[in-house]
From TrEMBL:
UniProt-listed Enzyme Commission number(s): 3.6.4.13
Compositional bias ranges of the Basic and acidic residues kind: 507-530
Record-given protein name: ATP-dependent RNA helicase
Organismal lineage: Eukaryota, Sar, Stramenopiles, Oomycota, Peronosporomycetes
InterPro entries: DEAD/DEAH_box_helicase_dom (IPR011545), Helicase_ATP-bd (IPR014001), Helicase_C-like (IPR001650), P-loop_NTPase (IPR027417), SPB4-like_CTE (IPR025313)
Amino acid sequence: FHDFQPPLCAEILAETDALGFEHMTPVQAATLPLFLSNKDVCVDACTGSGKTLAFVLPIVQLLKAKLADGSITAPRHADLTKLVAMVVSPTRELARQIFECAEKFFAGALPGVQLLLFVGGTSVDEDLSLIRGAVGKCSVVIGTPGRTEDLLNRCVGSSVETREFEMLILDEADTLLDMGFEVSLNKILEHLPKQRRTGLFSATQTQEVKALARAGLRNPATISVQVANNTQVTPTTLQNYYCLVGHDQRLSALHHFVQSKKGQKLIVFFSTCGSVDFFTRVLEELFKGDEAIPVVGLHGKMPQKKRTTNYDRFSSLESGLLVCTDVVARGIDLPDVDWIVQYDPPQDPNFFVHRVGRTARAGRSGCALSFLSSNEDAYVNFLKIRKVPCEEMTLPLDTMEDVLPNVKSFILEDRDLLEKGTKAFMAFVRSYKEHQCQFIFRFKELDLGAVARGFCLLQLPKINELRNVRINFEKTDIKTTDIKFKDKAREKERQKKLVVIAKENEARDKKNAEMREKKRKRPLEEENQKQPRRREKKKGLHQQIVEEWDELAEEEKLYKKLKKGKITEEEYEKVLLGKA
């Protein structure tokens, strides 16, 4: 850093010295000269290569120089803040990490510039209060796409001006696009002046990223920093392993593995938020005791306050276990992580590299282990083709402790675990069915019975994915409705609901019984109604015949009277016509 030309400002050098950064990483050495000479850059570098400093340092250096020479001035009005730079990141955790990194450099070099963090999970009022606190000053925003777009929509022109905006950074650009933020990114670009410096930073350069570069960058310099031998995309300091283990043995294998790495820091990746909730609780119970191993859960559906607390807690631990989803897979630099365990392979194969990249960062060594079923072993060759070498590791599956009976005993003591396990199983099944590598992870070959046993289910839930499927699973005789919540308040609420449900069921059963009885009686009633109609029909026909015979008899009598001369022919015809 001290040898860089033109020289970096004294405040930057003091902070890099304080952080122990003596030499630039290749991505920093390649990016800084271009960025500082007013070039747009599109940077492709493997995880853990120091991309964050590659854009934080140019922002600090450039803004300090422009503020010093008057190129950037104070806002035109005292009730405005002048937005001069922005960093957009895909996740709250990554945005917060970038913010904390930038704070260290801004404090010394740019004390008059307000650094603002905008992420989801906070109220709009809180965001607006941050803007109000920055009026009369220049500001730099670090945030997630949705919240940053909302800020610009609300505030540009009213409390934020962008006239002298200098630098836009899109960090983890491929993830921003994969997560569906393209519309938000385009809206953000619309609010910013075209005369700016823009940097796209990513671990992979997809077609979508290249399209975004064409739309948002002007004649960008492309920087691609790969490992020296070009035979792998993961760091050479990473040892990558896989282990063939069935779904009903994975929890026991994980328990054994974590115990063997006591005193180290591990991250365990699961495919769904439900699995994180369930296995966090289970692992907390399994690792209780005198030599307890701290277990922390983290996923994207957690309330923001809990996400932040758990993230900070794991970051501060010297050893322990983080149970998480892919929300932690991109860009997050959790300190001193020794092992990555992929309990479930990622649904998106691109995330394999990002997951294992949470260890072996910035030249440090690290290890990763992935669990695969025997019918998923083709994934190893798939990774090899993608330049991700993987060696097999064997675990003592036959002799290690089976922890599933222990977990079932935990479930019988607390209904919360029963419900979490069932939800997690259903979420996993749906996730597996939608896997992006279905030519390897074939749902038809998934051992659903083993999966159910792995989640310690007492009985299978009724879901569409299990219809007409033969499953090797033996349900228990335990009546699950008898399992209570440990939390007395939750159990009291459940009992109230059960009473209401029982009454509703009773009313429904009574109504169904009445309907069945009504249906049974309906044919008899219809038959009884038909009988009188038939009698009336028969009676009407008989009466008609009698009346016709009476009429013929009357005519015969009248004719005899005519023959005997008792009446005239005119009288005879008159009587006949009168009857007609």
